[in-house]
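queue> pop job 88
queue> type: inverse folding (structure -> sequence)
queue> payload:
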């Protein structure tokens, strides 16, 4: 393993001679043409139980519920927004294999697993799951939301953070030799942008420039902060054509904002499709609306109305789709719609809105291939 940042930079440049033009999966390099139908933002092995957690003065019944396993008896509580720690942990490989099989049965070929540093990322488990399912799995890197940053994040420098991401992509994660193929999900929430979030943005930009890997954001800022994030990326030398703004479902009702992002050359990704929750939805362009459920139901209808408008504006090659499976309640085993909702339900509905099969192929095959193919390092 290189002993300093400069050595990692040199190795990154050398590796790119081989990596550029290919896709990095947990089983190594793959020809982009082999990716096929791809979902761009999912979690297979994950632990996001650090946040949210019950308040210290929460009722005893809530504290007791937090410690329970998710079962048929308490599933309704999770659907209503009650916190159950087990719901936020995806750790069973056998369950993952069964759930992913639904996606494969519908013609799926590739899953982008964006559990980044601090989220229970397990490269060896992902490789085992890839081998058992026959799917391509692309693993993420970078840092998630501030609650999941390392305890020394305040002291870490942009250079140090960049080095770790570059190493994940060029050498491998945690000594396994299994490499990340995308930077993300990068957990920028903003409102306003925090100092450590800005460091994470800058490190992601530099690592993208040095490795050719794309960047996938969780939100990427709130509302017009996304444009500020894009400006920081550009200042750091990142190509905005290698940037994905995730969770765009929340802004599906704000077409002007989405068009501003697209005009910069970035991708918009609708990736919280198919969520089953309490029957109260947070309207994506009304952030002041109170909601009764912690897990707002996905407003898939609004997304399906937005996509044809973005296509009409000329951006069919900049739209990506996924489900962001990250809770047990989203798995089919627990009554959710799983990893196959888009293929089973959403795409047929999208066709009723006038979206053609070639346009769907763009979103599900060609666009993901463009994002995941490593570019030349700069």
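queue> result:
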């Amino acid at each position: 393993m290189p002993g300093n940042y400069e050595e990692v930079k040199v190795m990154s440049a050398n590796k790119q001679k081989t990596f550029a033009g290919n896709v990095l999966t947990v089983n190594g390099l793959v020809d982009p043409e082999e990716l096929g139908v791809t979902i761009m933002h999912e979690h297979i092995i994950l632990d996001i139980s650090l946040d949210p957690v019950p308040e210290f003065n929460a009722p005893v019944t809530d504290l007791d519920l937090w410690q329970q396993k998710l079962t048929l008896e308490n599933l309704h509580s999770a659907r209503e927004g009650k916190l159950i720690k087990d719901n936020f942990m995806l750790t069973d490989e056998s369950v993952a294999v069964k759930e992913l099989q639904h996606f494969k049965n519908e013609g799926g070929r590739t899953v982008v697993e964006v559990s980044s540093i601090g989220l229970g990322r397990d490269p060896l488990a992902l490789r085992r799951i890839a081998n058992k399912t026959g799917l391509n799995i692309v693993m993420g890197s970078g840092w998630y939301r501030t609650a999941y940053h390392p305890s020394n994040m305040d002291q870490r420098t942009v250079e140090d953070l960049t080095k770790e991401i570059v190493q994940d992509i060029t050498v491998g994660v945690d000594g396994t030799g299994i490499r990340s193929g995308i930077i993300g999900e990068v957990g920028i929430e903003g409102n306003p942008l925090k100092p450590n979030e800005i460091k994470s943005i800058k490190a992601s930009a530099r690592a993208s420039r040095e490795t050719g890997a794309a960047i996938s954001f969780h939100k990427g800022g709130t509302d017009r902060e996304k444009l500020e994030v894009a400006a920081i990326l550009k200042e750091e030398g990142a190509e905005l054509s290698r940037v994905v703004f995730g969770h765009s479902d929340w802004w599906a009702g704000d077409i002007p904002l989405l068009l501003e992002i697209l005009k910069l050359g970035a991708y918009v990704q609708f990736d919280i499709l198919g969520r089953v929750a309490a029957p109260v939805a947070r309207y994506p362009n009304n952030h002041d609306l109170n909601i009764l459920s912690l897990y707002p139901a996905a407003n898939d209808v609004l997304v399906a109305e937005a996509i044809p408008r973005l296509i009409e504006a000329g951006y069919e090659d900049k739209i990506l789709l996924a489900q962001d499976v990250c809770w047990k309640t989203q798995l089919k085993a627990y009554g959710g719609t799983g990893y196959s909702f888009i293929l089973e339900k959403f795409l047929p509905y999208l066709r009723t809105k006038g979206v053609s099969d070639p346009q769907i192929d763009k979103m599900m095959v060609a666009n993901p291939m463009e994002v995941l193919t490593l570019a030349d390092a700069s």
